[in-house]
Fold this sequence. Notes:
Strand order of the largest sheet: 2-1-5-3-4
Distance between the termini: 40 Å
Largest sheet: 5 strands, mixed
Amino acid sequence: MAWVWVCTSCCRQMAEAVLPTPTGVGAEERTPLLDPAPASQSPGSSILKGLGTPNAGFSCPPNSFISSDSLSGEYRKVDLSADGSSTWGPGATRASWPTAVLLADLEQDASQGECALRGAAPAGLAPVKPEASQNSSPGPTSCMGARVVAEAGMGDTGSAGPEPESCLPCCDGGRETPEPRRGHPLTRPELPSVMLLNGDCPESLKKEEGAPEPPRENGLDEAEPGEETTGQEVIVIQDTGFSVKILAPGIEPFSLQVSPQEMVQEIHQVLMDREDTCHRTCFSLHLDGNMLDHFSELRSVEGLQEGSVLRVVEEPYTVREARIHVRHVRDLLKSLDPSDAFNGVDCNSLSFLSVFTDGDLGDSGKRKKGLEMDPIDCTPPEYILPGSRERPLCPLQPQNRDWKPLQCLKVLTMSGWNPPPGNRKMHGDLMYLFVITAEDRQVSITASTRGFYLNQSTAYHFNPKPASPRFLSHSLVELLNQISPTFKKNFAVLQKKRVQRHPFERIATPFQVYSWTAPQAEHAMDCVRAEDAYTSRLGYEEHIPGQTRDWNEELQTTRELPRKNLPERLLRERAIFKVHSDFTAAATRGAMAVIDGNVMAINPSEETKMQMFIWNNIFFSLGFDVRDHYKDFGGDVAAYVAPANDLNGVRTYNAVDVEGLYTLGTVVVDYRGYRVTAQSIIPGILERDQEQSVIYGSIDFGKTVVSHPRYLELLERTSRPLKILRHRVLNDRDEEVELCSSVECKGIIGNDGRHYILDLLRTFPPDLNFLPVPGERLPEECTRAGFPRTHRHKLCCLRQELVDAFVEHRYLLFMKLAALQLMQQKASKIENPTSLENGSLPSSESKPEDPLGSEAGSEEEGSNASGLARVKELAETIASDDGADPRSREVIRNACKAVGSISSTAFDVRFNPDIFSPGVRFPESCQEEVRDQKQLLKDAAAFLLSCQIPGLVKDCTDHVVLPMDGATLSEVMRQRGINMRYLGKVLDLVLRSPARDQLDHIYKIGIGELITRSAKHIFKTYLQGVELSGLSAAISHFLNCFLSSYPNPVAHLPADELVSKKRNRRRKNRPPGAADNTAWAVMTPQELWKNICQEAKNYFDFSLECETVDQVVETYGLQKITLLREISLKTGIQILLKEYSFDSRHKPAFTEEDVLNIFPVVKHVNPKASDAFHFFQSGQAKVQQGFLKEGCELINEALNLFNNVYGAMHVEICACLRLLARLHYIMGDYAEALSNQQKAVLMSERVMGIEHPNTIQEYMHLALYCFASSQLSTALSLLYRARYLTLLVFGEDHPEMALLDNNIGLVLHGVMEYDLSLRFLENALAVSTKYHGPKSLKVALSHHLVARVYESKAEFRSALQHEKEGYTIYKTQLGEDHEKTKESSEYLKCLTQQAVALQRTMNEIYRNGSSANIPPLKFTAPSMASVLEQLNVINGILFIPLSQKDLENLKAEVARRHQLQEASKSRDKAEEPMATEPEPAAAPEDAASPPQAAKDPPSPSLQG
């Protein structure tokens, strides 16, 4: 059976998600994945950028469009047109992945907390039986699932011929050309199916390519569950699509393309979305008079074949169906209204792309012929031009024409006469509605079992008899069409516009994304919203038995689903993802209700801080130290941090995914200054005492400790991937107890018999730099940097990424030591084991180059990474002759000892998380092990300071990572395992760096992050003292003190006449958010800034030199608008979209009317699609090795799987689409590139935010593809948008701005706007010179671009001057004989000739006056082709003619250049310490020249 998760919703989504154009015209208009051609001609490879750095989606280096060196696939691509797109959308917020992430990293998402309310998520999930969830209501607010590609989950691979499963019937009428889809069994061309399908791709690939993997003890190397079962996974899908005819009442019959794997349910969804049938919800489909079952697959329906006629039959209503119908009509009326996105509900979010592309790019290509020299208005608004100081806020959300809503009705609401009295019920009345039409007519409507009709009730008089005209309509829309001409006209227009929107503008996102600005909107009447608010949505989840969902049961049952083969794993991952996203939404709603005082506490008699709550089967607790539990760890501060640490633990254990070990669903919500932890409830826990139920671990931080054999067995299985050491501790009776986790990790067996672990806040070892321990001395690197420092709590842990990087570092060291000694043995045949006893460890720990060098070595496979290859060989020999040769065993033993391995026969580094825990005692017998563990922890703390932080600064200097705002900087730090509390240290290192100027952007971002984080800490406690009625006044007062130049802002207290005279000040039991003091009102800007500086010093150990915001702006070159954005995103504030006069000294910048809302900031687990990720990595690896066709297929496969697991919207799908667009662009298929990149932009806006750095990147890519498709004005407006967003998010002085301005300058050059073009290109030149150094190849290229514009203006002197600069750089960097140098020299000659010719002409004119004989001058207006070629060069794109021979040469060339690069790098180091460019592999080639491997390359591990 093909499994479908139908949690029906967003009715249209599914149908449209699979169509590339909004109107979804038949099959041939669909993304040409149907067409087998592209694959067969093997995709032209871009030389794609290997994401050497894990921050891939966020920060792209200056030639960010694509790299010019290592052949590596960039991102996962997921294309909705590929089959199997499911559309319930839960997704995750995280940057895209690096090329080779350990699985552990993969799971470890640093979610950015932009998530929450999945308002609608009613879809119940009884996950064991998919059917159980399938009777979820088809209401538009529930969410709609789609089939997983049949059995093997192998959808269309983009190359395997027509995909056999239809991509869901399309929206308007059947496809006209179903023929190509028939009779093509889906087979996978030329790829070993086992490799593809056993879920262990990277490994099998490695073996296939013969990259020997040295023996590793650590790491996630448990056997993949899929390994034995590969046989049954390769199921060839024989079913192909066919078309059926649909007969619906009142419209012409139409045909619809369907697939045998679809369910009848999915045809329902399509009909509810089609323009002409969208008003029907309550109907069934009949074939030859027999009703089809909603949940049967089409292939199981007897007699259903090509050309069958399905009749739509109206069914009688029930109360539930009538409510669903009203809800659906309301959703259709609101379909263009953005208010849900501004209010952050129902997983709606904003997208503005269509404003800049003038609708959908697909048609615009045909509409605008884009003749090269069409008059185009190219002048951007003043604030976008280089050098402008103005940073307006309003353009952030341009007005979308479609948002001026067409009013169909004034009011549609439930009548006050509901529910019908008994005698009317027996006449079939289900409920009553009250409507005011646009013509101001007030009517009452009865919903009965047979349909809708007008009754004679008025507001004050109940008369249920039918009114005239006696018109009974099965659909509410038909009835309203009868009684209101305006409704009829406007509703039709509205539906037309609705179906024209791109599906990605409408599909719900998996987690809520909040907007920090919103325009002033009027509040309109909305019955459904009102109902939802008062029933807390629980009432609407009626299709779930027992009303509220048993979250714990759902979360755990999905984990128990089988996972032996690919289809099972897909189903399981999809179920897990879906439940998590629903749980996150419910938990967020509950947490807000708790703080707003809408939930009764379960211990109401205790004081507010101690209260706990249960709502919707979720347990809520506040982040305060209840009963002095954390007294020894920092009290309330520790209690505030513990939930976040616990969430990291849950995330980690979920990622390891050990069968039989269960964690709680956990969401941490920060709202209005309070931290609320939401957890699913262990069955039976509320009936027992904690002491009785805990059978493993300790409830009092190690005084009493118990253990349990089953828990030890389960946790033992997590100890290797998590690097946790099994150890013994003493309990209060001095007995030894064995544990395999930290002591405060508790094990409880629930009433359901499952083994739960909770309180995972110390899963990772402590960070000794922030934990002073009397009598313990830290290594020199730490003491030099001023550590250990006392932190405000004692729960500081190392990050998992740091632990992994440290173990990796130690592993390389271990291999080197072993190799060194074996070589010595072989060379001298003398055993000299003692030389290693004390190992060269400390010194190598302190040399930052060592790990970087060794890690770099591991990355450059093609090159002569001599040492490492030998080390790997040695590892093999060590492994093989382990038993035989006692000498090599001795070597291994010494190396193990030197690196602190717990095993003496193999490398195995693990940490004991209880070392240095106050209150934990170890038995005498373990003292030596404890001593070793203490040393290991000290080494790890030193490793962070001596390797990771310098490594980060080096990557920033080389522009390997390019953060643009606080979030992307945090992401980059976290991926290297550096906690945010080290931010001050990172900034110190940046200040001391010899390349300080090249790190200017990092310094600014870092200072801004430091200030806004310090302000956030103060804001949190500030808000706790504010009662609800003073919230907007308090927030605007805080913002005035923080950002306004007005010297003494006065807070507006809530109006006096409203303050009750009799207020009882002694209520102990008010909700947490209802403090009623007004202490907040006395804050002054001076005091706030003093506190911020103090906080920066105490928390980050960084001294800020400033007393006011204006001083900060002056000293550090920050922008107030950027600070406003950062503080709003961090605290959840939403402000009014208007221009703020921050610098006015006469009035404060903010009034209380400017604060519109405060949203929760949510942290949650992001379940991952593991198989899809393997496929994606394998695809990237293939593209890197030059097997482009196979790589493309694997990436298409990954795309299908991502869609299957995450639904249509997800950060990772966005990255996949970007890669796909890139590949199509390189293959010359611009239309396809446009279509995919358009989806990527829309998705990035929707899931990451409209001004997220990732979105800015996507805009730039789309602009390039538009230019290539001759849509010049669109390309320009997209680039201007990207420039505006960059100015808002950071400012002008950022390396990325050089790339942007080069792009804009080139496009303007192409449309002959020379003066404007020069402004941008010269700005780019200045920025490049600053960030890359005046001698860099990037600067040479910039000089060349400027020279070309001067040439076009016939200003040859300036042109010559710039080209000479470029030539000098090429000559010194690349040598006389390099192609680039020659090209530049040729161009110089050409310019000189033109200059001479011009001078002659001028002289002629002076001599002979007007009668002079003037030879015609050749002024070169640039051709579009030459401009496009330059655009490709600056964006690092390269085209290759694709014969096999070329590919071979190409691979050889890449390897050769790599070696060159290494050589030149070492040469540079000697000459000029901060050269930021690997030298060779120069810049632009002429189109005619033979294919070269790289152009103007970035450093090797840049990502595109």
